[in-house]
């Protein structure tokens, strides 16, 4: 499912397009990243950003919604295949991956999440994300 995350609070904004697919009872490969028991992330697209950053931000977002994922997959092994990731390098902050992933999960499984508060810091010319605590498997 394709999802678009965007935030615009100044003259520029952050837009992240992600296409991810849920694969139930997958054949888990050695390159798949275990997020939690029975939950894996497969990264098919690493053209725009290094794998370690995807693991940190996308995997971290999954870690904040583990209970909701378990409720929706019914105890089977699930792998989320990140098939495509697109954004504009000039207007990108890695935190956008975290927010896009949480929104993708909420939309895909049709549950509510608390919105991530984002403010624009004019002096630093960057967005400040008020992210919940998360577990990161990446650097």
Question: How would you characterize the overall build of this protein?
Answer:
This protein is an alpha+beta fold and 139 residues long. It has one domain: 2-Layer Sandwich (Ribosomal Protein S5, domain 2). The protein contains three helices and seven strands; from the N terminus they run ββββααβαββ. The strands form two sheets. Strands 1-2-5-4-3 form a five-stranded mixed beta sheet. A two-stranded antiparallel ribbon has the order 6-7. Strand 3 and strand 4 form a beta hairpin. It is globular and about 45 Å long.
Kindly name the structural category. alpha+beta
Strand order of the largest sheet: 1-2-5-4-3
Shape: globular
Low-pLDDT stretches: none
State the name of the first-level CATH class. Alpha Beta
End-to-end Cα distance: 27 Å
- Rg over alpha carbons: 15 Å
Alpha plus pi helix count: 3
Give the tally of structural domains: 1
Chain oligomer state: single chain
Mean pLDDT over the full residue set: 94
What's the total number of strands? 7
Percent strand: 25-35%
CATH topology-level name: Ribosomal Protein S5, domain 2
Main sheet makeup: 5 strands, mixed
| H/E element sequence | EEEEHHEHEE
The assigned CATH architecture is: 2-Layer Sandwich
User: What helical percentage do the residues reach?
Assistant: 25-40%
What's the gist of this structure?
The chain is of the alpha+beta class. It contains three helices and seven strands, in the order ββββααβαββ.
